């Protein structure tokens, strides 16, 4: 069991600055997910922790050792790869035993650990098979098994579920979470899938262009995104954005754009007052939009034309147009609306997000 | 035209083409075999039909080959040359290809291309400078000169071939082994090379064939029968001036073909079975 510290971590390839000044403190037994679009530096960061990429600048500490110059084998980590990377010429048993054999564990201990891991993962019957005789899900279990037999200080997962089909991915996600609760080992998990990040992580690190954008617990990222990128990346369907102008009308602030006029809640006014007369980005999540009832306060309603109706069973997504803005609203499955119909929509004033138009930071 | 007859037609065309190719490639061995079994009278008879045996088969040419020529010595020399040539070439090629394809040092790509260009220089250009070098080393008229010379042609090609094969092995496989606790040597021997077996076999077959069938270098470097290898030995013994002992030549050529054929048959199964299947998601 160990903490992982990254201090001013940088990675430069010839031309590309892939990872920029990453500072992270991953606590003992914590499950931390690095998430971001492809090319954001998340995998490179993980591979530096594994020792598969050289560190250009900065420091990585696992437990209480600086591991910068240690080869992967001496870092006491185990890694699960996206494409499983099982040894094709070995049986499942030998695949799982390989790491222990390399570390010269006694035969009986190897046998015990492999059986134990196989039982946890439900692959006891597969131990004599070769990887090519396994399905994708089974291969992924073996890859996880190969990692857990070692009882390492840290687990590293590099997009382990992205080769599985959607249904299996959800199932394995739950299994991984259960496994982590059971093994209580520090884990760093890389994914581009924000749902995986939110469901698995004790904390989530959002990255973009090599920079860490925000670190926080899943719900914290969701409800208080640090900037426009995080706001748009976390959550599906994504947050709606509209460029609005802040207007001061006798002390009350309004966010305005053609087709949309919203009163800024009093609690948000002090910070937004500095932006009076300027353009800012207004963000509102699809579930914070609803069809306005008769009693609704006119300060937070606007009219919109329905363009697409997407019934998902448990909810309906409405793609609407308000002025020039395309928005998505998530409404109750009981709502009956037709395409081209004009609706009154209301937004939840307490759950509006404002971002600086230039820096994109949350206001 | 409906689908079925069309498919049958396509198949017929395919088989016709395959048949043509088989005829083309199997005709020379057939010719060798049949000539080696004919009596000298029949071979030299202008009335005979070359494609069939009319006057009865004989094994006399084979008996003569073993009893009246140094064929067995040539055969032994070929084996003695080929085994070390294949071993040396493969060890160097594997290490070079691994370094060039995986270690990613500065200029690896350029060196890789350079290695292949070396292979393109023809033997007929190289044997003169090689003759001088072999002379300096005191290896003229020794079969061991070939052990030194053949790898210069084999290593570049095999390295190039293996670079290509190694590139198809997912990098995660080596990385998994390194994370699992292997050092570079253990990873190479226990994970990487077992997975690369089909590529290694292709390279081995190539190395064997070059060494076994080489003609120009032994012709240039070796003079005495006791050091001679099969290819040159058979020809120099059985062609006396302008007299061609066709029966013996064909018998010798046919026997010389056997080891490569056996090797191909034996290794082809390994070669074709895709060993990498299942290690990663295709």
Defining traits:
heterodimer, A: 363 residues, alpha+beta, six-stranded mixed sheet, five-stranded antiparallel sheet, 9 helices, 20 strands, elongated, B: 282 residues, mainly alpha, two-stranded antiparallel sheet, 13 helices, 2 strands, 1% strand, disordered C terminus
Structure description:
- Chain A is α+β, with helices and mostly antiparallel strands.
- Chain A is built from nine helices and 20 strands.
- In chain A, the strands form four sheets. A six-stranded mixed beta sheet of chain A has the order 6-7-8-3-9-10, sandwiched between helices. A five-stranded antiparallel beta sheet of chain A has the order 13-12-11-14-20. Chain A has a five-stranded antiparallel beta sheet with strand order 15-19-16-17-18, with no helix packed on it.
- In chain A, a hairpin with a 2-residue loop joins strand 9 and strand 10.
- The radius of gyration of chain A is 25 Å and the shape is elongated.
- With 282 residues, chain B is mainly alpha-helical.
- Chain B starts with a helix and ends in a 10-residue tail after the last helix.
- Chains A and B meet through strand 6, helix 2 and helix 4 of A and helix 8 and helix 9 of B.
